[in-house]
Amino acid sequence: MFDVTQFSRDADKVLEVVGGDMATVKTGRAKPSLVENVSVEAYGTRMKLMELATISAPDTTMIMINPWDKGNLAAIERGIASAGLNINPVVESDHIRIVIPPLTQERRQEMVKLVKQKLESGKQMVRDVRLKYKKMIDDQKGKPGVSEDNISADLETLQKKMDEYVAKLEKVVQEKETELMQM
Q1: In this structure, are residues 87 and 97 in contact, taking their beta carbons and an 8 Å threshold?
Q2: Residue 90 is part of which domain span?
Q3: Structure pTM?
Q4: 34 shares its domain with 79
Q5: What is the pLDDT of residue 105?
């Protein structure tokens, strides 16, 4: 039979991925989440910036990065500069400062398009999860103790859960769009 909790776990993973993607979309406001997952070469391996430093946003236009080991300042600067975020880190004595410029209206509209693309990608991931479970339900046809009514009920439950998760994705994206379009 259809395992609703397992479907929910798989769909929640998709929500986490899309939520993480949304966190990296620049809104013109300084947020630690913009850089916390930047990959930095330190101690002979690749590490996330949040594993190497304290990241804060003292105001809406600036991100401050205070490495725990000041020897990593240059590596952190290189990691941020090469992350493709179109931001310029400035190294000061014992910390890094990043000033986030305000977005132009044109750039905001580009970001909204990007957010919508991420929504479509998220919807496709949820559809893939649904397809996996639909196949599992369809494989139950003809097995002893499984009626057509059971299969129909499972398919209906699956579709309801699918619609629920698509609505959650759309809500996350709508919130990001609203945030982007606020000046």
Answers
A1: no
A2: 29-99
A3: 0.66
A4: yes
A5: 85
